[in-house]
Amino acid sequence: MHTTRTLAILKPDCVRRSLSGEVLRQIENAGFKICAIHMQQLTRTGAEAFYAIHKDRPFFNDLVDYMTSGPCIPMVLEKQDAVGAFRILIGATDPQDADEGTIRKLYADSKSENIVHGSDSPENAQIEIAYFFGESGIPTDIK
Ligand code: GDP
Predict the structure, then answer these.
(1) For the segment 99-109, what is each residue's pLDDT rounded down to a tens digit?
(2) Is 117 part of the annotated catalytic residue set?
(3) Does residue 62 have its Cβ closer than 6 Å to ligand 1?
C-alpha cells in the first residue's frame, strides 16, 4: 500500500457543535496529513451535485437541508490507503452501528447527522477532491 488521498468533510453539525478541533486532532493522531483545508457554505445546488448519487433516495432532501444548514470544512487527507483507513477511523454511517472509538461513535448523534464525510472509493476520492479543490493548489508529497 502506498500513500494516497481521500476527501473528508467536517459536516455542519461538527462545526456548529464546536467539535472541529477535536475531530481534527483525532484525524492527525491517526496519522493523516492534512494537504488542503478550508471552510465553506455549500449551496443547495452544490450539495445536490456532491450527493447526486443519492438523488433517488427518500432522504435526499433531508441530506441536502443538513449539508446546507451551516458552513462545513472539506479537506484533503493523505496516508497509506487513505480511503480505507479513513472509513475505518470514522466508523459506520449510523453511529449506533459504529465501532467503539470511531469518530462517529464518539461524536455523532444520528445516522443523518453524523459529523463527518469520507470518500468511499479511490475513484470517488479523486472526483470529490477535484470538486472542492480543483486539480491544482494542493502541495505534493507531504511528509
Ligand atoms: P456514508 O458513506 O457513510 O456517509 O453513507 P452514505 O453514502 O450511505 O450516505 C451519505 C450520507 O447521507 C450519510 O453520511 C448521512 O449523512 C446521510 N444519510 C444516510 N442514510 C440516511 C437516512 O436514512 N436518513 C437521512 N436523513 N440521512 C441519511
Answers:
(1) 999 999 999 99
(2) yes
(3) yes
